[in-house]
Amino acid sequence: MLEQELQVARAAARAAGDEVRRMREAGLRFGYKDGRELVSEADLRAAEMLHAALTAAFPHDGWLGEEHADSDDRLPCERVWVVDPIDGTREYLQGIPEYAVSVGLVVEGHPALGVVYNPATAELYGAVCLGVGERPPRAGAATFDVLVGRSEHRWQELPPLPVGARPRGVGSVAYRLALLAAGRGDAVLTGYGRAEWDVAAGAALCLAAGLRVTGVLGDGLRFNQPDPYVRGLLAAEPGLHAHLAGFFQRLA
Fold first, then answer.
1. How far is CA 158 from CA 35, 90, 94, 171, in A?
2. Which position among 5, 25, 33, 49 has the lowest Cβ density within 10 Å, counted as fewest Cβ atoms?
3. How far apart (Å, rounded) are the C-alpha atoms in residues 29 and 37?
4. C-alpha span between 178 and 105 (Å, rounded)
5. d(CA 127, CA 180)
């Protein structure tokens, strides 16, 4: 199921990622949009490449991308590609190898497929999560690593965490979710609102790994919304997720 979609998404993400890596090595211009958010020539070039590859292969699907003007045309679509050409533009421009191309496919409002490619490290993660169930909850560990935003960690902008939590800052949230799905962390937490294109692909990878992905308080997530944002995110194996969500519910 979705084998062709996964193959096309992997190839498109790799091609776009290799192009943005080349562009950074050659030098490029950048600026700001909406007053404060960084954007570079590479973001725009990668967006063009991804849009061309995915819409050519699947012309009837909807599209939601960070660097494309949004349209209500996507809302009635059963399938929508949710794409961030460079998640972690700040890290990309600073030469920190913690950015990623993020390509997600949402089906009926739920993550179905995710591809996350870090061009700086040549790590490519891809999976289909349809039909995959959660892992059985496991016993809690005395300590556990919580992957959080680099700036959140640096400026101590994290919510209170339970005893045993060890926060670790990583740039791109898409990359953090991919690392978690690959077993290179125990939880991902972001208390900030995030655009759907930041997290859709990574959420699919985590679901494919049997993890639980919700809002910070354990509330369900739905994608392809008219206002395409999620109010924070928590991902972990089910036992740890229940522990963390319960902790934050008691604080609320």
1. 24, 19, 23, 14
2. 25
3. 14
4. 15
5. 13
- 54's CB contacts (< 8 A; 6+ apart) are 8, 9, 12, 61, 63, 81, 83, 103
- Give the predicted TM-score (pTM) of the model: 0.94
Q: Is 212 exposed, middle or buried (0-12, 13-18, 19+ CB in 10 A)?
A: buried
pLDDT tens track for 182-199 = 999 999 999 888 999 999
Kindly list the distances between the CA atom of residue 53 and the CA atoms of 9, 15, 74, 103, 127, in Å, as whole numbers in the listed order: 8, 10, 18, 12, 18
What the block records as the tokens of 216 is 């910070």
CATH class of 144-251: alpha beta
- The topology (CATH level 3) of 3-128 is Fructose-1,6-Bisphosphatase; Chain A, domain 1 (3.30.540)
